[in-house]
Amino acid sequence: MILYIYPGLIWLAVLLSIPAFFVVNTQSKKYHRLIFGIIVMVAVLETYGAYSILNSQNSSIFHNLLFVHAESLLLLYFFYLNFSLKKVRQSILVSGLVLMVWALINSLFFQPINSSFQTYSFIPSAIILIIYCIGYFYSIIKEDKFQDVKIVAVPSFWIVTVVMFFYSCSLMFFASIPLVNPENYELVYKIYNLIRGLSILMYLIMGLAFYAPIFFKTRSIPD
């Protein structure tokens, strides 16, 4: 029962996000479709993950392919859509290419994709995503892009905020695991459950972010 709470809450994020298809404005639809796809992908992944645990199966390959690699690349695409500067967009494309090449190298020589969670791939992905999160907040201040709207009414603001929060915490967790004494793995497990709780919060806020313009009445959001 407890095993299915985690995927169940992510499916809740999916359900909460569905009505947004009918209320988001034209400018936000491309962002909503992307974020909705990410949440659905993770919900399916975690449902299968719970099933595989009950049946003593190894689902590492799917977690690595979808969570470590696919989600990171899709979030990079989200940033690509949000940035207008050509140089930044080019850097995002290069970052995605570098992550894919490194994922292949890591899978072939260091951490087989079907054996365990690929921390060597997740850590650089998290660092890159955090950098673009910081870049997003910097662009808000420098370009004053949302000067005519309340920042809390901008869906991307909420999404980037929770992405930065989750990946910052996850980065510290997975980077510190090799330094932990094996005798303290019970503590690691407790922190891991906390990270999973943060991921639930992230996906829920992602699913609700597109209602922000309704909750916080505002004018049209610039593209």
Give the key terms:
mainly alpha, Rhopdopsin 7-helix transmembrane proteins, 8 helices, disordered C terminus
Give a structural overview.
- By secondary structure, this protein is mostly helical.
- It has a single domain (2-215), classed as Rhopdopsin 7-helix transmembrane proteins (Up-down Bundle).
- It contains eight helices and no strands.
- It has helices at 5-17, 26-54, 60-82, 86-109, 119-143, 155-176, 185-208, 212-215.
- Helix 5 packs antiparallel against helix 6.
- The longest helix is centred in the first third of the chain and has 29 residues, at 26-54.
- The radius of gyration is 18 Å and the shape is globular.
- Mean pLDDT is 91; it is low at 219-223.
The CATH class: Mainly Alpha
Strand runs, count:
0
Calculate the terminal CA-CA distance, rounded to whole Å. Answer: 44 Å
Series of H and E elements:
HHHHHHHH
Q: Give the overall form.
A: globular
The CATH architecture comes to: Up-down Bundle
* Low-confidence sequence ranges: 219-223
Rg over alpha carbons: 18 Å
Stated plainly, the CATH topology is called Rhopdopsin 7-helix transmembrane proteins
**In terms of structural class, how would the helical and strand content be classed?**
mainly alpha
Share of β-strand residues: under 5%
* Assembly classification: single chain
Average pLDDT figure: 91
What's the main sheet like?
Answer: none
Transmembrane segments: 6-24, 31-54, 60-80, 92-113, 119-139, 151-174, 194-216
Protein name: Histidine kinase N-terminal 7TM region domain-containing protein
Organism: Mongoliibacter ruber
Keywords: Membrane, Transmembrane, Transmembrane helix
